[in-house]
From TrEMBL:
This is Helix-turn-helix domain. The keyword Coiled coil applies. SMART domains: HTH_XRE. Residues 106-140 form a coiled coil. It comes from Moraxella caprae. Residues 8-62 form the HTH cro/C1-type domain. Keywords: Coiled coil, DNA-binding.
Amino acid sequence: MTQIGKTLKRLRALKGFTQEHMAEKLHMTTDGYAQIERDVGNPNLPKIEKIAKIFDMTTVEFLDFCENGATFYISGDAQQNNNTDSKLSMYYLFGKNGHEILLAELEKAELTIQHKDELLEQKQNEINALKEIIELLKTK
């Protein structure tokens, strides 16, 4: 069973939105919105579409998130930045396959680091070769 209310409350808190803010965005009363969060009222599809847009998700992503939970990821930029607002914007939410997405991103990052290390080694070899050439030229 989909837990729209529970999910909606978590997302709202994560973004730092108030119930009043959400109610205003959805063109409804605060009490009506609070009923959705308590799973007392069930929003219709157009309302769910609006909710998903508020959180920059597609309707399918939002419903998947409600049904299956999510994997949370905090980017390195957010951890280094002292601005609270930007920290909130650096949270990423993934549906049930979120761990697979993160593993793919991790593998991509590891390959990038490996390539960088190879380039650094090549650069160091070139520097060493140039130093040898300079020494040879100095001795002549």
